[in-house]
């Protein structure tokens, strides 16, 4: 979408919104599959603290200059990621939540595009590598592969459906 220059257009934003809905659903289903009742309390605690911290973060960020917003936002992103990981959620869930409560108009669009480029080039491969290295293929046997296939099918179908619906 970036190469087609529709990422910043209303249609591009709509495509991203619809395609993201299935990501949220997949994370929810995965959380249910891997449900560990020992961690549920920590996860509810994380979500409660996150809700309170979000209010404080948004008040703080509105008072800062744009250059300072970048630093505070990166600390916010890291803190949410680490807290989510501590609670038993994946750190990407924390990062997603951290980004979901930020407004795009707080940042210069050219700088944001440059950051996106660097993240996709340098950080995303590290994420996939670290996730792959932590995968335990012996856990659950064939049931894990079946669940992974179902989740992959749901994810791809959701992306295609989201793109199709947004295109109408």
From TrEMBL:
It comes from the Bacteria. Keywords: Ion transport, Membrane, Transmembrane, Transmembrane helix, Transport. Pfam families: Na_H_Exchanger. Residues 3-166 form the Cation/H+ exchanger transmembrane domain. One of its GO terms (cellular component) is membrane. One of its GO terms (biological process) is proton transmembrane transport. It is found in: Membrane. The keyword Zinc does not apply. It is a multi-pass membrane protein. GO terms for molecular function: antiporter activity. The chain crosses the membrane at residues 15-34, 40-57, 69-84, 119-137, 143-162. The keyword rRNA-binding does not apply. This is Cation:proton antiporter.
């Amino acid at each position: 979408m970036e190469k087609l220059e529709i990422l910043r257009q209303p249609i591009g934003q709509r495509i991203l919104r619809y395609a993201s809905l299935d990501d949220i659903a997949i994370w929810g289903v995965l959380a249910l599959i891997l449900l560990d009742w020992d961690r549920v309390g920590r996860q509810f605690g994380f979500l409660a603290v996150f809700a309170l911290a979000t209010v404080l973060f948004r008040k703080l960020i509105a008072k800062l200059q744009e250059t300072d917003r970048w630093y505070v936002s990166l600390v916010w992103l890291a803190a949410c990621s680490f807290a989510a990981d501590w609670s038993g959620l994946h750190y990407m869930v924390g990062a997603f939540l951290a980004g979901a409560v930020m407004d795009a108009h707080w940042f210069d669009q050219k700088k944001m595009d440059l950051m996106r480029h660097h993240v996709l080039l340098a950080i995303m491969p590290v994420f996939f590598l670290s996730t792959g290295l932590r995968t335990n293929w012996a856990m659950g046997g064939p049931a894990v592969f079946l669940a992974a296939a179902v989740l992959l099918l749901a994810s791809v179908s959701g992306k295609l459906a989201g793109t199709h619906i947004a295109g109408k």
